[in-house]
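User: Working on a comparison across species. This one is BamA/TamA family outer membrane protein from Flavobacterium quisquiliarum. Can you predict its structure so I can line it up against the others?
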Amino acid sequence: MNKKRNHIKNHFAKYFVLLSLFFVFGCSNTKYLPEGDLLYTGGSVEVKDSIMKKKDRKALETEMEGLLRPKPNKTFLGLRPKLWFYNIAGEPKKQKGFRYWLRTKVGEEPVLFSKVDLDYNASVLRNFTENRGYFKTRVSADSTVNNKRVTAEYTVIPKKQYIIKSVIFPDDSLKMSKIIARSSRRSLLKVGKPYDLDLIKAERERIDARLKEKGYYYFSPDYLLAKVDSSKGDHEVKIRLVIKDETPAKALRAYKINNIFVYPNYSLSNDSMVYRKKNITQYKDFTIIDTAETFKPRVYDRTIYFKKGDLYNRTDHNLTLNRFVNLGTFSFVKNEFKPSDSIDNALDSYYYLTLLPKKFIRVEVLGKTNSASYTGTELNLNWNNRNFLRGAELFTASIFGGADFQLGGVNKGKNIYKLGGEVSLTWPRFITPFNIEGNSEYVPRTKATLRYEYQKRTQLYALNSFNTSFGYLWKENIRKEHQLNVIDVTYVSPNHVTAEYLEDIQQDPALGKVIEKQLIFGPTYNYTYTNTMQKRRKNTIYFNGELDLAGNITGLVTGADYPDKVKTIFDVPFRQYVKIRTDFRHYLKLGKESELASRLIVGAGFAYGNSNTMPASKQFVVGGTNSIRAFRARTLGPGSYVIPETTTNINYTPDQSADLKLEFNTEYRAKLFSIVRGAVFLDAGNIWLLHADPNKPGAEISKDFMKEIAVGAGAGLRFDLSFLILRTDLAIPLRNPALPDGQRWVIDDINFGSSSWRKDNLILNIAIGYPF
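Assistant: Here's the predicted structure for BamA/TamA family outer membrane protein from Flavobacterium quisquiliarum:
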């Protein structure tokens, strides 16, 4: 015990010395300053107002402090490490090498007080407050010097904030004025609310967007003038919106769509191409100018929302452009509207489309590793045709192969090889017995896939896997996405099962599930919601839900019932089950370069009717690089189950899978410097069987399942190379459910000084991308 305490003291002393040196170096930043200059360490704003609530005053101060320029050097725990790296690197002699990299990429040059303009910042604060309705605001600026460091202090004394007394919309005889008046209930300017210049600008843009939906193509927010009268009332303003007298006549008229021209083979390098009459096709309301008849005309009918005689509106304008882009066949999409030569108040619409190469080959070579000590490579060769049947269909034919090797560990020699192929055809529309019209900017798709894979696990067994599916993919908007496979059939057949593996099955019957013949068919549905693309939000979420229904209708019709009435198709019992899985993620932005990311996974599978257990390929697993990182892939659980000593002569690690899954992960992510980001994380969870298995005691779910939650923690580095993120995570187990109850917390046994402990408990994960 004393040795352990001395060991901890020695580690603490080392960390204390390093921290002390860090503080010393941090304090030495000022000695590198130019003669007579000072280090600017930031500015603060104090709002002096006795009427304003404290909460509102603090919020206003924080907002104004964000307007101050320049920004001081970045700090960490009160220190400026980036500035320190800049200083110790010195002036590099060449624009390359370690010193240059340390100074320019890792370091940050000092922000000097000579660069701070107090008067300019004061005027910025004054304009900001007055734009918020605090007219006649007084702002003063001062500075405080302390040991070659200086701070700037700004004092803002606002007057009473002005309130909107009334809002008057255009009331002239123009038709557009009536449209604006009818939309007044949606106005952003509300009587009784504070005056805000930004809100007035937003209101002008709202009105412009409304007019764009009513045919006013040439109108602009700049044609609206907001007249503000603050001469009457007690700190009140009257706002009157008027259309400027100098507004062009064409901006005051609503336009309809006349002719629609489409150029599918438009060339950016030659936009003055000459077309012959035979190259021009008239289809419904569209005039198609195409020398090669690239697409069937109905492609344009499904993509272009405008029809001849329609009133111009921005919604259909944007929908059409987005759908052309989402077809995936064009590298460039351009749209122009020109006044019609034959009809007044009409627009001719022109679509100029530049094609991507119709056929292309993509080769992918991947290197991979996982926490089960497997290292391998994979080669994918894909041939693609973006316009297979002249309807913008995507046809893909792929062949792939790969190998995973374990260079050390209990699976050494049990290498995994796979080889296979896949063909798929994707139509940019719904193929159904009945017509489905959508109004999304995203093109709905129908996809058919046929896949075969041969997987060989040397010295054990091989599996032949066939899969075919037919389904639909569509997006409601940028946040919501659906995938429904109405047909999804999988057939798995084993061969070349070795005598060694058959002997292992005698010791562990669960291994027999892996080589069972499997026939799985039924619909699957997947729904995804995310707003993580909204970078300015403090809180963003991601949700994915999956529903897998296998053999349900067939089992009901045939009256299948295990074990008395097991039904077969081609002498193979079909699987019957229901499986649900949800994945919820939350991202909390803590700063410009830091966030707290969390994930919760809940899954359940229930076999019934023609099956008594879930297929091994459809069960849940836990552990590994993207799961609970302190435990090797597929080795955790189920429950508190421990592989019995009678199976210790099995010289490889069998996969552990189960019917239920609960997993929680959270990690703090922050940028350290340059391309390097750091993270600390905590993972917890486990899997369980829904029903008791006499061969796996402790694997069944029970009311005490929380006592069987595994916990791991660790830290890692992420290297953001722009085209990919290389991740390294080092994790240790904190709670192991395989240990006896009451002894599962292993924190007291942590001993970094022991080589045997490090070998058994330190798990290094190397992967591509974030875990979630």
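For your comparison, note: The CA atoms of residues 386 and 394 lie 4 Å apart.

User: Helpful, thanks.
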